[in-house]
Task: structure prediction
Amino acid sequence: MIKTILFDLGNVLMKFSHERMCKQIAAAFQVNTEQVSELIFSTDLHLQFENGMLTEKQFHQTLESMLGSRCSIDVLKRATGDIFELDTDMRDVVDQLRKQNFRLVLLSNTCVTHFDWIQSQFDLLKQFDDFVLSYEVGASKPEVAIFEAALQKIQCTPAECFYTDDISAYVEVGRQHGFNAEIFTSAEQYQQHLLKYGVVLA
Result:
């Protein structure tokens, strides 16, 4: 019997655009988008931020130094965070699971700026019982440490937990840790996966 539902965040519950983020950061610093994209994603800067190795202040200072330009940290937070759109179909699924008293846990590779932005702009995360966040754990999927952290949060056996993610490599590692895990493609397909494990939505 499934007791806990473990969700990925990006491209499962929330759609997002790294391209939009890079454009907005570039505009904030008055540099070109390609320069920002290369700095953040062609180096390990985004991984450092997602794994909590950099604070928001340090991320801001690094960008100012590497781009040779300045913007306020509040402007940067908005440019970095305002890239999300709620998947309303999945929000309906979350609401139904909440009503049926499943334990809901988020397992996400994310930085503090993205998580804080989502919490401030959407009420989705109020439905969740707990969070396993890469910047708090100090490790990101598919690293073992973050899945071990998830095992501590689900409050059931792995066999009593259903996990979904849009990245197949992460799903596979989830299965290696004993979770019932399936690749996310759509809200409709997700409900079929739930049925497979005996979870029926209204």
Remarks:
- The chain has a mean pLDDT of 97.
- The CA atoms of residues 54 and 182 lie 32 Å apart.
- The longest helix spans residues 18-29.
